[in-house]
Amino acid sequence: MQNAIGKPFFNIFAKLFLLQMSTYILGIESSCDDTSAAVLKDTVVLSNVIANQDVHKTYGGVVPELASRAHQQNIIPVVEVALRKANIGKNQLSAVAFTRGPGLLGSLLVGTSFAKSFAMGLNIPMIEVDHLKAHILSHFIADSGSQSPPVFPYLCLTVSGGHTQIVRVESPETMEIIGHTIDDAAGEAFDKAAKIMGLPYPGGPEIDKLAKIGNPKAFAFSEPNIGGLDYSFSGLKTAFLYFLRDQLKKDDDFIENNKADLAASIQSTIINILLKKLKIAAQQTGIRHIAIAGGVSANSGLRLAMQKTAEELRWDIYLPKLQYSTDNAAMIAVAGYFKYLNQDFASQDLTPYSRSTNK
After folding, report:
1. Structure pTM?
2. Where do the domains of the chain lie, and which CATH numbers do they carry?
């Protein structure tokens, strides 16, 4: 009987003890082309350092081999700067949290290998973090000017270059994907449209800039008819490509003469697709606390549309600060903090994964 109840009681007392003392988490993010390190005191950001890789602009997209090489060059200095800015020594760290996946395997291997050696050298636990769950939990990062964190349960529209999901979030540990893209992600649709138009990489922010001065109703693009709460963007990308091909046959300068209107129209279509399913999800679940996360959550058009929808449907919405919408280590550290409270630690023999197994 003692063995049956001893461990749960031990875990409860251990958790209470951890809550009474400050926890310092070093976060490591290396899932794609940005090398980032952050230090959090509980959920409060002490530092969040990001090293960007401009080399990919030449190629119009991320080159995996170049990305992994750059991570190897950047990770040690980025961690050193993060610790210095946080004004703490490495021996004060409680644990190191790192992105295990999904992402580019070569990039993830750099971050994972560093975390393993760093944790082993300091004899502190390491915590594996799912990149997408970290985006969802980025709303719990405590920073000056941040809004209050979401109330559980909440729905989170997670939108990036590689993923589009609607997630029901019951707690930091319990999440359920209730809708996802069956092919391409919304961020990929933004980037592909920008590339077709000849805009520089990364294309999503360029579309957003032009859309601010364009007419969103100038051109109409058909929206996919997918059942349930799932998304599809491959057809929209193809339709946009064929539309421009046909127009260029009539006018060689069509894109140049209509660049802002094209950007506004394709952006408006993508946002309409995203919010249509999100509204259905909110109606079906009865949840009125709605968040967005991921790189595309920085899009000004999406943010404005969320605010208008919230006013119409009386949602409580949560928009991440811009610096925590794109890939960053602070979100990895805050996700790691919640796992630390549950003593959910990783082993030295784990390997990263490039694709999420969750659907």
Report:
1. 0.90
2. 11-142+326-341 (3.30.420.40), 154-320 (3.30.420.40)
